[in-house]
Amino acid sequence: MEKMRMNTESKKEFLEDLERRFVEEAEIKEVADRLTKAGHEAFLVGGCVRDLLLGKEPKDWDVATNAAPEEIQGIFSDSVYENSFGTVAVKTRSEDPRKKIVDVTTYRLEGKYRDKRHPDEVKFAKTIDEDLSRRDFTINAMAFEVTSHKRRAEGLVDPFGGVEDLRNKIIRAVGDSEERFGEDALRLMRAIRFSAQLGFSIEGATAEAIKNKAGLLEFIAKERVRDELEKLLMTQDAAEGVRRMQELGILHYVLPELEEGAGMEQNKHHIYTVFEHNLKSLDYAVKNGFPLELRLASLLHDVGKPQSRVWKADPQGEKTREGRKGDWTFYQHQYIGEKIVLEMLDRLHFPRKMIEKIALLVREHMFVYDPEIITEKGVKQGVTERGVRRLVRRVGSENIDDLFLVREADRIGSGVKKPVPYRLRHLKAMIEKAKHDPLSPKMLKVNGEDVMKNLGIEPGPKVGFVLSALLEEVLDDPELNKKELLLKRIKFLGNLSDKELADIVKKAKQAVAEAQERIEKEIEKAYFV
After folding, report:
1. Four-point Cα dihedral 153, 159, 163, 165, nearest 10
2. Strand 201-202 to strand 310-313: parallel, antiparallel, or no bridges (unpaired)?
3. What is the C-alpha separation between 5 and 52, in angstroms, rounded?
4. pLDDT digits over 108-143, tens only?
5. Which of 194, 313, 463, 500 has the most CB within a 10 Å radius?
6. What is the rounded CA–CA span in Å between residue 395 and residue 439?
7. Once rounded to an integer, what is the mean pLDDT over residues 511-515?
8. DSSP secondary structure, 104-134, as one string
9. Could you give the CA distance from residue 453 to residue 466 in angstroms, rounded to a whole number?
10. Are 79 and 35 in contact (CB under 8 A)?
11. Contact 65, 105 (CB under 8 A)
12. pLDDT in tens, 418-467
């Protein structure tokens, strides 16, 4: 956050500079000028004032006025009024998306909030002070007067000490904290989001009110909660924001499955609790500019650990639990995590496509990348070219790079210094090579037409069975992907029944799964995961 300029300039100088900056916003100034020329007041309000005070470029512009909605529409022919809150959307001539639409709202007061989100009724107010009194936090309850003919207070209206709270980096509710959150429970999330977005602390009474009112989030539409969660995760201090959600009791009503890992010890290979590890993985994702879906995958990749944690007794072990030596295990946590992610993100109404991708990344984040694992019997096992092809086939070439990024976040979240060790680089090289190998039926040198022509059959399930059997063989050995060889195999496979073909595909997949399971068992023995 840029240093607040009022720390280095006098208030008068600052306000003069603020006015100069506002004058440069020609499209916004035109809206204000047209209101004042018609005899009405006009104030910049809310987030745009806060951002201007912080020396930042406002993301959007809001104007408050004593003009009624019908009067606003009379002044601006190119405007839309489709709500009951007194807000008229005024279209400007700007090509900048942040300035194309300016919300002009009549001063208003709000009645009770029986649904904890929307006021039962909206009453129009007479003064800007009344309008500011209904707002959420002091830093958002300031107004900058742009009425040229009747200016007061040197232009800045700050009845609740927003400037001082900006200077001290504090999030404070306007008036009675519990009353503000009781009116609109989404403000609980907004307080934490602003805290993470601006790097501010939450004032004591406001924080206590969040704890007391956390349960009100259950009354809020899940998509509204999701929107605030998304905004929080896209801040530069997202991990600290999620931690604050947990400390103030909010996480229990948003991502309770994630909270289960709070204070949960892991095994000797981890220096952090499950929850702390997830936060550090998220922090890595944020610092490296990962998109939202990868931030979520990094945060949730180990969400299955609490439900999979079991104490593994070991007479030779160092740790003890209830007098038994041993350590914690988290076997199959990735598969449990996949199921949890599908449920929790669907509950928050995330887009289905995004949910499925995040669940896939969670399920596959434990992929094997050790080129050589020595089993107890002295047999060398590890990632093979065949295994790599099947990994790419299973994950999808379009997702493989993202899977590596989540694994990097996982490693750094565990306290490892290097996100990409030699073994992982080795696997990446193998994957780049595998991407050129046939990984799907479309990459075979034959297609359904070839199968039907050679076998003299019509379209039907058998065509798919034959292509699936061919693909399994080619995944094992890409050299078999030659048209003449595949045509011969089609003849052979065509003499088999549908059941026999299905069994071939099933056995091939089962053999691969068993090989993968043997490798995973060795990893489980070594790392208890």
Report:
1. 170
2. unpaired
3. 10
4. 986 555 555 555 567 899 999 999 999 999 999 999
5. 194
6. 11
7. 55
8. EEE-EEE---TTSSS-S-EEE-SSHHHHHTT
9. 13
10. no
11. yes
12. 766 656 666 767 677 666 666 677 778 888 888 898 888 888 888 888 88
The length of the chain, given as a count of residues: 529
Q: CA-CA distances (angstroms) from residue 185 to 239, 256, 320, 491, 523?
A: 22, 18, 44, 67, 46
Q: Is residue 518 scored above 60 in pLDDT?
A: no
Dist CA 525 CA 529 (whole Å)? 8
pLDDT at 309 over 90: yes
Q: Where are the domains of the chain?
A: 5-167, 169-254, 280-434, 441-527
Structure tokens at 70: 């019908």
519 versus 267: the higher-pLDDT residue is: 267
Give the CA radius of gyration of the chain.
30
Interval 237-294: pLDDT, tens: 999 999 999 999 999 999 999 999 999 998 877 889 999 999 999 999 999 999 999 9
Contacts of 303 (CB under 8 A, 6+ apart): 257, 258, 261, 278, 337, 340, 341, 344, 362
Kindly report the number of other CB atoms within 10 A of residue 428's CB atom.
Answer: 16
What is the C-alpha separation between 132 and 45, in angstroms, rounded? 8
Distance, CA of 526 to CA of 529 (rounded, Å): 8
Going by their DSSP bridges, the two strands 101-106 and 87-91 should be labelled as: antiparallel
**Residue 257 to residue 224: CA distance in whole angstroms:** 19
Cβ-defined contacts of 318-326 (< 8 Å, 24+): 318/268, 319/267, 319/268
Q: What is the DSSP letter of 248?
A: T
- List the CATH code of the domain at 5-167: 3.30.460.10
518 in Cβ contact with 368 (< 8 Å) = no
Average pLDDT for 231-240 = 97
In this predicted structure, the answer to whether residue 7 has a pLDDT above a threshold of 50 is no
* CA-based nearest residue to 248, from 287, 221, 208: 208
Question: Are residues 459 and 452 in contact, defined by beta-carbon separation less than 8 angstroms?
Answer: yes
pLDDT averaged over every residue in the chain: 83
Report the percentage of the chain scoring pLDDT > 90: 45
Q: What is the CATH number of domain 280-434?
A: 1.10.3210
Most confident of 154-163, 195-204, 265-274, 380-389: 195-204
State which fold the 169-254 domain adopts: Hydrophobic Seed Protein (1.10.110)
Supply φ then ψ for residue 350, to 5 degrees: -70, 155
> What is the distance between the alpha carbons of residues 284 and 239, in angstroms, rounded to a whole number?
9
CA–CA gap between residue 502 and residue 499 (Å, rounded): 5
Q: Which residues of 93-128 are buried (b: 16+ CB within 10 A; e: fewer)?
A: ebeeeebebbbbbbbbebeebeebbebeebeebeeb
Amino acid at 265: E
